[in-house]
Specification:
DNA-binding; elongated; two-stranded antiparallel ribbon; mainly alpha; Arc Repressor Mutant, subunit A; about 45% helix; homodimer
DNA sequence: CCAAAGGGCACCGATTTGGTGCTATTTGGG
DNA sequence: CCCAAATAGCACCAAATCGGTGCCCTTTGG
Protein backbone atom coordinates (compact mmCIF):
# COMPACT_ATOMS: atom_id res chain seq x y z
CA UNK A 1 0.00 0.00 0.00
CA UNK A 2 1.14 3.50 -0.69
CA UNK A 3 0.94 4.69 2.88
CA UNK A 4 3.31 5.32 5.74
CA UNK A 5 3.08 3.08 8.77
CA UNK A 6 1.97 4.50 12.10
CA UNK A 7 5.53 4.09 13.25
CA UNK A 8 6.67 6.48 10.56
CA UNK A 9 3.92 8.94 11.41
CA UNK A 10 4.87 8.90 15.07
CA UNK A 11 8.49 9.32 14.13
CA UNK A 12 7.70 12.38 12.05
CA UNK A 13 5.66 13.99 14.79
CA UNK A 14 8.39 13.30 17.31
CA UNK A 15 11.22 14.44 15.09
CA UNK A 16 9.50 17.66 14.13
CA UNK A 17 9.04 18.35 17.79
CA UNK A 18 12.72 17.74 18.35
CA UNK A 19 13.58 20.32 15.71
CA UNK A 20 12.24 23.08 17.92
CA UNK A 21 14.22 21.84 20.90
CA UNK A 22 17.67 21.91 19.43
CA UNK A 23 20.10 20.44 21.88
CA UNK A 24 17.60 19.57 24.59
CA UNK A 25 16.78 15.97 25.32
CA UNK A 26 13.07 15.32 25.07
CA UNK A 27 11.56 12.27 26.73
CA UNK A 28 9.09 9.92 25.11
CA UNK A 29 6.69 10.75 27.92
CA UNK A 30 6.72 14.42 27.06
CA UNK A 31 5.94 13.60 23.46
CA UNK A 32 3.08 11.34 24.48
CA UNK A 33 1.74 14.08 26.73
CA UNK A 34 1.76 16.64 23.96
CA UNK A 35 0.45 14.47 21.13
CA UNK A 36 -1.99 11.57 21.17
CA UNK A 37 0.66 8.93 20.54
CA UNK A 38 1.30 5.80 22.62
CA UNK A 39 4.34 6.59 24.76
CA UNK A 40 5.85 3.14 24.56
CA UNK A 41 5.53 2.99 20.82
CA UNK A 42 7.03 6.38 20.23
CA UNK A 43 9.89 5.30 22.46
CA UNK A 44 10.35 2.13 20.44
CA UNK A 45 10.49 4.11 17.24
CA UNK A 46 12.96 6.61 18.62
CA UNK A 47 15.18 3.80 19.81
CA UNK A 48 15.27 2.52 16.29
CA UNK A 49 16.18 5.94 14.96
CA UNK A 50 18.89 6.15 17.58
CA UNK A 51 20.42 2.86 16.47
CA UNK A 52 20.60 4.23 12.95
CA UNK A 53 22.21 7.43 14.09
CA UNK A 54 19.38 9.85 13.34
CA UNK A 55 18.91 10.87 16.94
CA UNK A 56 21.04 10.89 20.06
CA UNK A 57 19.69 9.51 23.28
CA UNK A 58 20.46 10.06 26.90
CA UNK A 59 19.48 7.63 29.60
CA UNK A 60 18.61 8.28 33.17
CA UNK A 61 16.41 10.71 35.02
CA UNK A 62 16.64 13.72 32.73
CA UNK A 63 17.14 11.60 29.64
CA UNK A 64 15.44 11.65 26.28
CA UNK A 65 16.11 12.08 22.61
CA UNK A 66 17.57 14.84 20.48
CA UNK A 67 18.41 15.20 16.81
CA UNK A 68 21.85 13.86 16.06
CA UNK A 69 22.26 16.11 13.03
CA UNK A 70 20.95 19.40 11.70
CA UNK A 71 17.29 19.22 10.71
CA UNK A 72 18.16 20.31 7.22
CA UNK A 73 20.38 17.25 6.79
CA UNK A 74 17.76 14.67 7.71
CA UNK A 75 15.48 13.73 4.84
CA UNK A 76 12.11 12.08 4.77
CA UNK A 77 13.60 9.41 2.52
CA UNK A 78 16.10 8.56 5.23
CA UNK A 79 13.48 8.32 7.96
CA UNK A 80 11.20 6.14 5.88
CA UNK A 81 14.07 3.92 4.85
CA UNK A 82 15.09 3.31 8.44
CA UNK A 83 11.59 2.49 9.62
CA UNK A 84 10.09 0.71 6.63
CA UNK A 85 13.01 -0.11 4.42
CA UNK A 86 13.68 1.58 1.12
CA UNK A 87 10.54 2.37 -0.87
CA UNK A 88 10.43 -0.36 -3.48
CA UNK A 89 7.06 -0.16 -5.18
CA UNK A 90 7.46 -3.69 -6.53
CA UNK A 91 8.09 -6.92 -4.69
CA UNK A 92 10.74 -8.09 -7.14
CA UNK A 93 12.82 -5.06 -6.35
CA UNK A 94 16.18 -5.64 -4.74
CA UNK A 95 16.48 -1.98 -4.04
CA UNK A 96 19.04 -0.63 -6.45
CA UNK A 97 18.66 0.86 -9.86
CA UNK A 98 20.55 -1.47 -12.16
CA UNK A 99 20.46 -4.65 -10.13
CA UNK A 100 18.89 -7.64 -11.78
CA UNK A 101 17.86 -9.26 -8.53
CA UNK A 102 16.10 -12.52 -7.90
CA UNK A 103 12.76 -11.91 -9.52
CA UNK A 104 11.34 -15.06 -10.96
CA UNK A 105 9.19 -13.05 -13.31
CA UNK A 106 12.21 -11.15 -14.48
CA UNK A 107 12.89 -12.47 -17.96
CA UNK A 108 9.30 -11.94 -19.02
CA UNK A 109 8.44 -9.00 -16.81
CA UNK A 110 7.35 -6.12 -19.00
CA UNK A 111 6.98 -3.48 -16.33
CA UNK A 112 10.17 -3.82 -14.35
CA UNK A 113 12.22 -1.07 -15.86
CA UNK A 114 9.56 1.62 -16.27
CA UNK A 115 8.26 1.04 -12.76
CA UNK A 116 11.74 1.44 -11.41
CA UNK A 117 11.82 4.84 -12.99
CA UNK A 118 8.67 5.75 -11.14
CA UNK A 119 10.16 4.40 -7.94
CA UNK A 120 13.21 6.59 -8.40
CA UNK A 121 11.04 9.64 -8.94
CA UNK A 122 9.24 8.97 -5.67
CA UNK A 123 12.49 8.48 -3.83
CA UNK A 124 13.57 11.74 -5.30
CA UNK A 125 10.56 13.52 -3.87
CA UNK A 126 11.19 12.03 -0.45
CA UNK A 127 14.87 12.87 -0.63
CA UNK A 128 14.14 16.53 -1.12
CA UNK A 129 11.94 16.84 1.94
CA UNK A 130 14.01 17.63 5.00
CA UNK A 131 13.01 17.66 8.62
CA UNK A 132 13.62 21.37 8.51
CA UNK A 133 11.10 21.83 5.71
CA UNK A 134 8.59 19.71 7.59
CA UNK A 135 8.99 21.75 10.74
CA UNK A 136 8.90 25.13 9.04
CA UNK A 137 6.92 24.68 5.84
CA UNK A 138 6.65 28.36 5.08
CA UNK A 139 10.23 29.34 5.69
CA UNK A 140 11.65 28.34 2.35
CA UNK A 141 10.06 26.34 -0.44
CA UNK A 142 10.00 22.67 0.50
CA UNK A 143 11.16 21.56 -2.91
CA UNK A 144 11.54 23.22 -6.26
CA UNK A 145 8.59 25.66 -6.32
CA UNK A 146 6.10 23.13 -7.59
CA UNK A 147 4.76 24.36 -10.89
CA UNK A 148 3.76 21.33 -12.87
CA UNK A 149 0.46 20.84 -14.56
CA UNK B 1 4.56 0.66 3.56
CA UNK B 2 5.57 2.45 0.41
CA UNK B 3 5.03 -0.48 -1.88
CA UNK B 4 2.44 -1.64 -4.35
CA UNK B 5 0.40 -4.71 -3.52
CA UNK B 6 0.79 -7.85 -5.61
CA UNK B 7 -2.67 -7.13 -6.98
CA UNK B 8 -1.40 -3.86 -8.38
CA UNK B 9 1.67 -5.53 -9.82
CA UNK B 10 -0.41 -8.17 -11.51
CA UNK B 11 -2.74 -5.50 -12.81
CA UNK B 12 0.15 -3.59 -14.34
CA UNK B 13 1.56 -6.65 -16.03
CA UNK B 14 -1.86 -7.55 -17.38
CA UNK B 15 -2.73 -4.05 -18.50
CA UNK B 16 0.56 -3.53 -20.28
CA UNK B 17 -0.06 -6.77 -22.10
CA UNK B 18 -3.48 -5.49 -23.09
CA UNK B 19 -1.95 -2.38 -24.59
CA UNK B 20 -0.31 -4.45 -27.32
CA UNK B 21 -3.57 -6.21 -28.10
CA UNK B 22 -5.74 -3.24 -28.80
CA UNK B 23 -9.28 -4.36 -29.39
CA UNK B 24 -8.68 -8.06 -28.77
CA UNK B 25 -10.08 -9.72 -25.70
CA UNK B 26 -7.36 -11.47 -23.73
CA UNK B 27 -8.27 -14.17 -21.24
CA UNK B 28 -6.88 -14.42 -17.73
CA UNK B 29 -5.60 -17.84 -18.64
CA UNK B 30 -3.50 -16.47 -21.46
CA UNK B 31 -1.98 -13.92 -19.11
CA UNK B 32 -1.19 -16.61 -16.55
CA UNK B 33 0.41 -18.72 -19.26
CA UNK B 34 2.63 -15.89 -20.40
CA UNK B 35 3.63 -14.55 -16.99
CA UNK B 36 4.11 -16.32 -13.66
CA UNK B 37 0.94 -14.92 -12.14
CA UNK B 38 -1.86 -16.91 -10.48
CA UNK B 39 -4.66 -17.08 -13.06
CA UNK B 40 -7.47 -16.74 -10.57
CA UNK B 41 -5.92 -13.75 -8.90
CA UNK B 42 -5.24 -11.91 -12.11
CA UNK B 43 -8.85 -12.56 -13.06
CA UNK B 44 -10.02 -11.17 -9.73
CA UNK B 45 -8.00 -8.04 -10.26
CA UNK B 46 -9.23 -7.56 -13.80
CA UNK B 47 -12.80 -7.95 -12.64
CA UNK B 48 -12.21 -5.12 -10.23
CA UNK B 49 -10.78 -2.96 -12.97
CA UNK B 50 -13.78 -3.79 -15.10
CA UNK B 51 -16.21 -2.66 -12.42
CA UNK B 52 -14.40 0.65 -12.31
CA UNK B 53 -14.51 1.06 -16.05
CA UNK B 54 -10.82 0.70 -16.82
CA UNK B 55 -11.24 -2.42 -18.91
CA UNK B 56 -14.04 -4.01 -20.86
CA UNK B 57 -14.83 -7.66 -20.42
CA UNK B 58 -16.47 -10.25 -22.56
CA UNK B 59 -17.89 -13.45 -21.19
CA UNK B 60 -18.21 -16.79 -22.86
CA UNK B 61 -15.91 -19.03 -24.82
CA UNK B 62 -13.74 -16.45 -26.59
CA UNK B 63 -14.08 -13.96 -23.80
CA UNK B 64 -11.52 -11.96 -21.92
CA UNK B 65 -10.50 -8.43 -21.12
CA UNK B 66 -9.52 -5.40 -23.16
CA UNK B 67 -8.68 -1.81 -22.37
CA UNK B 68 -11.78 0.32 -22.16
CA UNK B 69 -9.91 3.48 -23.07
CA UNK B 70 -6.77 4.54 -24.92
CA UNK B 71 -3.62 3.52 -23.09
CA UNK B 72 -2.50 7.13 -23.00
CA UNK B 73 -5.60 8.05 -20.99
CA UNK B 74 -5.13 5.51 -18.22
CA UNK B 75 -2.75 6.65 -15.52
CA UNK B 76 -0.86 4.76 -12.87
CA UNK B 77 -2.55 6.94 -10.28
CA UNK B 78 -5.92 5.75 -11.46
CA UNK B 79 -4.95 2.08 -11.38
CA UNK B 80 -3.48 2.33 -7.92
CA UNK B 81 -6.46 4.24 -6.64
CA UNK B 82 -8.87 1.59 -7.88
CA UNK B 83 -6.92 -1.30 -6.39
CA UNK B 84 -5.53 0.19 -3.19
CA UNK B 85 -7.48 3.36 -2.68
CA UNK B 86 -5.97 6.80 -3.11
CA UNK B 87 -2.37 7.09 -1.92
CA UNK B 88 -2.70 8.75 1.45
CA UNK B 89 0.68 8.57 3.14
CA UNK B 90 -0.90 9.28 6.51
CA UNK B 91 -3.68 7.46 8.32
CA UNK B 92 -5.46 10.64 9.30
CA UNK B 93 -5.91 11.55 5.68
CA UNK B 94 -9.42 11.73 4.36
CA UNK B 95 -8.11 11.88 0.87
CA UNK B 96 -8.65 15.40 -0.33
CA UNK B 97 -6.40 18.39 -0.16
CA UNK B 98 -8.24 20.92 1.96
CA UNK B 99 -10.42 18.58 3.98
CA UNK B 100 -10.03 18.75 7.72
CA UNK B 101 -11.20 15.20 8.26
CA UNK B 102 -11.67 13.26 11.44
CA UNK B 103 -8.12 13.07 12.74
CA UNK B 104 -8.05 13.01 16.50
CA UNK B 105 -4.51 14.34 16.46
CA UNK B 106 -5.56 17.15 14.19
CA UNK B 107 -5.49 20.21 16.41
CA UNK B 108 -2.02 19.45 17.64
CA UNK B 109 -0.67 17.64 14.60
CA UNK B 110 2.39 19.47 13.38
CA UNK B 111 3.06 17.48 10.25
CA UNK B 112 -0.35 17.30 8.64
CA UNK B 113 -0.08 20.07 6.15
CA UNK B 114 3.50 19.58 4.97
CA UNK B 115 2.98 15.85 4.58
CA UNK B 116 -0.05 16.51 2.47
CA UNK B 117 2.12 18.47 0.16
CA UNK B 118 4.43 15.49 -0.18
CA UNK B 119 1.45 13.27 -0.79
CA UNK B 120 0.28 15.55 -3.57
CA UNK B 121 3.69 15.47 -5.18
CA UNK B 122 3.63 11.69 -5.21
CA UNK B 123 0.15 11.62 -6.66
CA UNK B 124 1.43 13.98 -9.26
CA UNK B 125 4.18 11.60 -10.24
CA UNK B 126 1.73 8.72 -10.52
CA UNK B 127 -0.71 10.85 -12.49
CA UNK B 128 1.85 11.54 -15.15
CA UNK B 129 2.65 7.91 -15.81
CA UNK B 130 0.27 6.48 -18.37
CA UNK B 131 -0.23 2.90 -19.43
CA UNK B 132 1.16 3.95 -22.77
CA UNK B 133 4.39 5.16 -21.19
CA UNK B 134 4.65 1.93 -19.20
CA UNK B 135 4.18 -0.19 -22.29
CA UNK B 136 6.56 1.81 -24.49
CA UNK B 137 9.05 3.45 -22.17
CA UNK B 138 11.36 4.58 -24.93
CA UNK B 139 8.79 6.02 -27.27
CA UNK B 140 8.38 9.41 -25.63
CA UNK B 141 9.64 10.60 -22.26
CA UNK B 142 7.57 9.11 -19.47
CA UNK B 143 7.24 12.40 -17.67
CA UNK B 144 8.83 15.78 -17.98
CA UNK B 145 12.47 14.98 -18.79
CA UNK B 146 13.54 14.71 -15.17
CA UNK B 147 16.16 17.34 -14.48
CA UNK B 148 16.02 18.21 -10.83
CA UNK B 149 18.96 18.31 -8.56
C1' DC C 1 -24.86 -28.85 -25.61
C1' DC C 2 -20.62 -28.45 -23.63
C1' DA C 3 -16.26 -26.54 -22.72
C1' DA C 4 -14.18 -22.26 -21.89
C1' DA C 5 -14.51 -18.00 -20.05
C1' DG C 6 -16.03 -14.34 -16.76
C1' DG C 7 -19.15 -12.81 -12.25
C1' DG C 8 -19.80 -13.04 -7.42
C1' DC C 9 -18.51 -13.94 -3.03
C1' DA C 10 -16.89 -16.16 0.85
C1' DC C 11 -13.15 -17.83 3.02
C1' DC C 12 -8.45 -19.16 4.71
C1' DG C 13 -3.46 -18.95 5.86
C1' DA C 14 0.46 -16.03 6.14
C1' DT C 15 2.43 -11.78 6.89
C1' DT C 16 2.55 -7.20 8.59
C1' DT C 17 1.32 -3.83 11.76
C1' DG C 18 0.07 -1.57 16.06
C1' DG C 19 0.82 -1.95 20.57
C1' DT C 20 2.21 -3.94 25.25
C1' DG C 21 4.85 -6.67 29.09
C1' DC C 22 8.81 -7.43 31.36
C1' DT C 23 13.28 -6.75 32.91
C1' DA C 24 17.74 -4.59 33.05
C1' DT C 25 20.52 -0.45 33.06
C1' DT C 26 21.57 4.37 33.51
C1' DT C 27 21.36 8.74 35.95
C1' DG C 28 19.95 12.92 38.25
C1' DG C 29 18.14 14.69 42.59
C1' DG C 30 16.56 14.69 47.34
C1' DC D 1 22.81 6.69 48.96
C1' DC D 2 18.96 5.27 47.17
C1' DC D 3 14.85 6.03 44.46
C1' DA D 4 12.24 7.68 40.64
C1' DA D 5 12.45 8.57 35.93
C1' DA D 6 14.30 7.30 31.67
C1' DT D 7 16.18 4.56 27.93
C1' DA D 8 17.71 -0.47 26.10
C1' DG D 9 16.38 -4.72 24.63
C1' DC D 10 13.43 -8.26 23.77
C1' DA D 11 9.58 -11.11 23.36
C1' DC D 12 5.07 -11.31 22.53
C1' DC D 13 0.16 -10.71 21.20
C1' DA D 14 -4.19 -9.06 18.71
C1' DA D 15 -5.92 -7.06 14.78
C1' DA D 16 -5.69 -5.79 10.15
C1' DT D 17 -4.10 -6.60 5.63
C1' DC D 18 -2.75 -9.38 1.84
C1' DG D 19 -2.06 -13.24 -1.27
C1' DG D 20 -4.50 -16.77 -2.92
C1' DT D 21 -8.51 -20.40 -3.52
C1' DG D 22 -13.08 -22.78 -3.49
C1' DC D 23 -17.53 -22.95 -5.13
C1' DC D 24 -21.18 -22.08 -7.94
C1' DC D 25 -23.56 -19.40 -11.45
C1' DT D 26 -23.99 -17.20 -16.04
C1' DT D 27 -22.58 -16.32 -20.72
C1' DT D 28 -21.21 -17.73 -25.26
C1' DG D 29 -18.86 -19.67 -29.27
C1' DG D 30 -18.14 -23.91 -31.81
Amino acid sequence: MLQFTKRTEYALIALVHLVDRRGEFVSARELADRYPVPPRLVAEVLKELQREGLVDSQRGAAGGYALARPAADITLAEIVTVLEGAPLLTSCDTGFAGTAGSCEVEPTCPIRSPIHRVRDRIRDVLSHVTLESLAHPNALPMVTPTENR
